[in-house]
Design a protein that fits this description.
By secondary structure, the chain is mostly helical. It is built from two helices and no strands. The chain is flat and about 40 Å long. Helix content is 85%, strand content 0%. The chain has a domain at 27-52. The longest helix has 24 residues, at 28-51.
Length: 52
């Protein structure tokens, strides 16, 4: 479970790093939407792990 969380955060960090250094710059609302979506999926995964 810890390994999965670590991989999750590593990929999130890598994705945001790549996105930041690409030509496309997201607006604040797009960034908020993206962050909200990823946090939702992470918390859902955590909840599933906690309930098993």
């Amino acid at each position: 479970m810890v390994i999965l969380l670590r991989d999750c955060s590593i990929s999130l960090i890598r994705n945001s790093y790549l996105r930041r250094h690409s030509t496309w710059t997201p607006t604040t609302s797009q960034l908020q939407k993206y962050l909200g979506r990823s946090w939702k999926s992470i918390s859902r995964t955590l909840y599933i792990f906690a309930s098993t």
